[in-house]
Amino acid sequence: MKKIKWLFSFKYIYIISLIYFFLGYFYPNFLQINNIYLYIKEYFGIYEKLLWIFLVGYGFSMFMKNPNKRVVLKTRLFFMIILGIATGYLYLLDSLKEQTERTMETVQQYVIQVGLLNINLGYIELYTFLKIFPNIKANVFAGSLIFIIFLSVIVICGKMIRKLILSVINFFKGQILRIREERRLKEEQIRLEKQAKLEKDIYDEICNIQKAYQEKDRLEMEVEEVILEENSENDLVLQVNISQEFEENLENIAVEDKIDDIERIDEDDDISIQIPEKERDISTVGISAAN
């Protein structure tokens, strides 16, 4: 039962019919014998290729397991057909601007000439255009077509447009971030340069202060050395004077000692030659008695 249901399911019948349809372009079949492809070309014109894309895409959507993606694909296929038809209408409406006479007969002839001979939009496109054009103003018709085209493009290329918009936003955001980063790096560099200059100035000032203190210490040391030299010279002179005075004192003392010794010797000599008075008297008496 399942096999029978599988064989008669819509998607497999559709795929088989689609294969049979495309084989008719290469091999004779019922459609080619009955000139179905010729009618398709006459009625659809350049939209025949859009029909192929629609049929293949619709068949592919039947095998998609994700229902959201299947709905999105089918929606895009329908809006693809709408976009093609609206673009053809807008082309015909724009071509009518060159037409000076706007009677229905002249418009019909001009539309057939442009729509069939120039680009072959197909009978369906021309027939529907000639039915709509007299019943609506040209400006309103053009505005509606532009809106439909814009909406169709958004629906068909929504993901691509979103990626494009996001990429553009990310590009500008990246440029803004890059500019901000460059500005920040520049400010940081300027700040570091100022800080380095300030540190260099402080270091130079400290070096100058150290040099000044070193120069002051050197001058003080030189002054102390000069003072020490002067003091040493004064001490040396003082010592020399003291030594000279000491030597002079020693000489004076020695001289005085010599003088004392000499005087003492003289006194001793005087004592040795002194005659006691008794002896002197005795001698004197003896001498006188003799006489």
What can you tell me about this protein's structure?
There is one protein chain. The chain is mostly helical and 291 residues long. Helices cover 86% and strands 0% of the residues. α6 (67-95) runs antiparallel to α9 and α7 (104-118) packs antiparallel against α8.
What's the average pLDDT? 77
Assess the beta-strand content as a share of residues: under 5%
| Number of E strands | 0
Largest sheet: none
The helix-and-strand class reads mainly alpha
Radius of gyration (CA) equals 70 Å
What spatial form do the alpha-carbon principal axes imply?
A: rod-shaped
Distance between the termini: 218 Å
Strand-and-helix sequence, N→C?
A: HHHHHHHHHHH
Query: How many helices?
Result: 11
Low-confidence stretches: 268-291
What fraction, in percent, of the residue positions are helical?
Answer: over 70%
